[in-house]
Design brief:
Length: 338
Amino acid sequence: MSEQNLPTTGRAWHLEARPEGRPVPSGFALREVEIPAPGPGQLLVANAYLSVDPYMRGRMSAKKSYIEPYEVGEPMDGPAVGRVLASNAEGFAPGDHVLHVLGWREYAVLDAATAQKVDPALAPLSAYLGVLGVPGLTAYIGLTRFAKVKEGDTVFVSGAAGAVGSVAGQIAKLQGAGRVIGSAGSDGKVKLLEGEYGFDAAFNYKNGPVAEQLAQAAPDGIDVFFDNVGGEHLEAAIGALKLHARIVLSGMVSQYNDEKVVGPRNLWNMSVTRSRMEAFMVTEELDLQPEFVREVGGWIGEGRLRYSETVVDGIDNTLQAFLALMRGENLGKMIVRL
């Protein structure tokens, strides 16, 4: 594409007001913005796929977190994959495909140092936002480095039909877990877990108390809990721990819209069972990324690890995709295709 034909404007989603409780469409706006020419060391990228993720709800609030909040009146951002239109950076050329963090927009001008080349011949571009991206890496790090799944372990994954949970359950099985149990928000998702993803048991958390359904699925207790949900799930899992069990906190999607978060009432059972509970940040564990890509990429190629995507078309529908994600309407990774 010649310099004369490079885009000079494009659309980007802006946060208009910080949500109280569940986000509503009036708090967001899709606006036309100017696209500057890339400066030294920069790339101009046409986004092809955008990621919407639960953690983004936290960034819409001003409260302290592990990542800076979105600014009211400014464009939002998040993981995206796109094609380089123009490059002023060594090692990148027009036509290259890159993974970066300036999503929620049609075009992005970014420092090449923040972009990572991806190969569409090895996997579909959208996979680099899901199973081979941060969600898959989150599952891999959590189970490999923190849960340290052992042969024969009973592993419980909450939110198991989502982008992280669906991969976590399968990785646990591939690492030798004896029994893998998942929770999900619909009977259809339960069937998917027990069928396509190979979970040994799954239940719909809307069909009854989580503690009761977990006790039926794991009558002898659990060795590992990989938590994407928090709240009732976390309390139920703490009540089901075996001796020296491990809890890995990946997310707490059930509480992202709550201003007041109440913790589990049975933490004493952590002492009774001499168990441990840990949280982690993916960006602090990136030394595992090469191993992750090699091992998980191999499992995908061999057909031993499967993944699902829910794809929504159009920049106009990015917000609706995010809101649907927060209602649990996705199977696997929620992706926006531009």
